Amino acid sequence: MRPPFVERLRQESDLIGSWCSFSSYASAEVMTHLGADFLVLDMQHSEIKQSDFPSLLGAFQGSAVTPVVRAPQNDYHSINWLFDQGVDAVLVPMVNSPQDARRAVEAAKFPPLGRRSFGPYRAARYSFEAKEYMADADRRATLIIQIESQSAVEQIDEILSQPGIDAVFVGPNDVAFSMLKPGESLLGPAGSSGEGADSWTTFARTPDVLALCERTLEAASKKGLPFGMTAGTMAEVREWHAKGARFMTLGSDFLFMRAGAEQMLK
């Protein structure tokens, strides 16, 4: 059994993950062999849906790679249900207020800390290990909240004061979008898909956006919470690890496919 992901985040440094967007067992299984420490199965922006679980988690069987699932939204049923399937960690998007943070905790943790409902499904080995599971459930259910707006960063100390949060993750792109004034727009620079996510994320790396990311890192460090962020290049991954980030994501299944195809077809 893998150790709780929150323990890895607290004890290990320089963790690197990638994103999975295909609802394919084989694709996820291939991704587990690429050297990542964790993989984020994205239910918010990709084709992965509830009916793909828990079978999709079988791709991680016997692997040291931790499956993290980004919930489709900050929804009680979605978060509660994912942990019942045996997901190691849930990344909750758009946590942009203390109220949003509390809502996520209520779905992820059992009473008295939260309001998660008792349902000994796959996480408790279909009730065969319900007693053992319940004794350690809140520690094993790693809750990662995703900060995605300037307003959230302005409230970050209060957000991170909500008990039950295990880690914090920043989405710089949406932070950048939240800073737009009426009539403004943001377009990524033109570039080859072989450049990977860098061609999508450069526009969200202005000094103002980076200052908000660093403010979140500082607040998380003061609270003793692991900090993570998306990155567009390995250089950016290393830069943020050096600043104190515990976990960073780089690339995805479809970006790797496109980059590899372009390279081979040159």
Which fold does the CATH topology refer to?
A: TIM Barrel
* Unreliably modeled segments: 189-197
Task: Write the CATH homologous superfamily.
Answer: Phosphoenolpyruvate-binding domains
Q: Strand share of the residues?
A: 15-25%
Give the helix tally: 12
Q: Write down the Rg.
A: 18 Å
Structural class, please?
alpha/beta
How does this model look, in words?
- α2 links the parallel β1 and β2.
- The chain starts with a helix and ends with a helix.
- The chain has a single domain, classed as TIM Barrel, CATH 3.20.20.
- With 266 residues, it is of the alpha/beta class.
- α3 packs parallel to α4.
- The chain contains twelve helices and eight strands.
- The chain has an eight-stranded parallel beta barrel, surrounded by eight helices.
Question: How would you describe this structure in keywords?
Answer:
8-stranded parallel beta barrel, 266 residues, 12 helices, TIM Barrel, globular, alpha/beta, 8 strands
Q: Which SSEs are present, and which pair or pack?
A:
Layout: H1 5-11, E1 15-20, H2 25-31, E2 38-42, E3 66-70, H3 76-84, E4 89-92, H4 98-108, H5 130-140, E5 142-147, H6 150-154, H7 156-160, E6 167-170, H8 172-178, H9 198-201, H10 207-223, E7 227-231, H11 234-243, E8 247-252, H12 253-264
Parallel strand pairs: 1-2, 1-8, 2-3, 3-4, 4-5, 5-6, 6-7, 7-8
Helix pairs in contact: 3-4
